[in-house]
Specification:
With about 250 residues, the chain is an alpha/beta fold. Helices cover about 40% and strands about 15% of the residues. Strands 3-4-2-1-5-6 form a 6-stranded parallel beta sheet, with helices on both faces. α4 (about 110-125) links the parallel β3 and β4 (about 130-135).
């Protein structure tokens, strides 16, 4: 256990795990090798985040746009997800971490959907780190799915449009029972959200690093937390003693 007393630990960290393919290419290996090492790195980083004191960790594993990648790469990723979810289950049973998955599972194979159902059901009462994996997820898709459900409930008389506010809309999103991220990390040098929880990241702090995901270990996570510690989170307000912009 390290001493993190001088750090302001974010309650919820989200990560865009970017750079697996470029990392592998730099080593003269196929992109799929990078995904394999990236998945292995995630196993350890969840435990590191838990040890540091992060309560919620959410990662972007596969986007709605990733289906456009080469067929062989997509098939390899799906095999990796199956293997990773088995490991995730074993780790959750040992560490009592709660696992959730978010996204549109309708395009996933039936066996993968069943693995997700069992994983979520069997860990729902655990009180360790809350670990969420976004699989076939896109923020625009999530909001559209949420709006369709909300409109259906409105037409059925279950809710009234007069009661529509941010809290009600949030309850129709995949992350309805998860607090918004305090810190969003993106690896491998890119500096954009890429359709990643755009509603939930409205007031998150962003941290970008050139380190590719397979090389993003506990030390890099701590650097992100140190940067977060120095941020002044104002949520649209001004700091004490500061004159507001006119």
């Amino acid at each position: 256990m390290g001493d993190y007393s001088g750090l302001k630990i974010p309650k919820h960290v989200s990560i865009i795990m970017d750079g697996n393919g470029r990392w592998a290419k730099a080593l003269g290996k196929p992109r799929t090798y990078g995904h394999k090492v990236g998945a292995e790195n995630l196993v350890q980083l969840v435990e590191d985040a838990d040890e540091i004191g992060i309560k919620y960790l959410t990662v972007y594993a596969f986007s709605t746009e990733n289906w456009n990648r080469p067929d062989m790469e997509v098939k390899t990723l799906m095999r990796l997800f199956r293997k990773y979810l088995k490991i995730c289950y074993q780790k959750a049973m040992k560490n009592h971490s709660r696992i959730r998955l978010i996204g549109d599972f309708s395009k996933l194979d039936a066996d993968l959907q069943e693995m997700i159902r069992v994983l979520e059901h069997d860990t729902k009462d655990f009180e360790g780190i809350n670990f969420t994996i976004a699989l076939n997820y896109g923020s625009r898709d999530e909001m559209l799915r949420g709006m369709k459900k909300m409109l259906a409930d409105c037409k059925a008389g279950r809710i009234s449009e007069d009661n529509l506010d941010e809290e009600l809309f949030s309850s129709y999103l995949d992350t309805s029972d998860i607090p918004d991220p305090d810190l969003m990390i993106r690896t491998s040098g890119e500096e954009r959200l890429s359709n990643w929880m755009m509603w939930q990241h409205a007031y998150s702090e962003f941290y970008f690093t050139d380190t590719a995901w397979p090389d993003f270990h506990k030390e890099e996570l701590l650097e992100a937390v140190k940067a977060y510690t120095l941020r002044d989170r104002r949520y649209g307000k001004v700091s004490s003693g500061e004159e507001p912009n006119v």
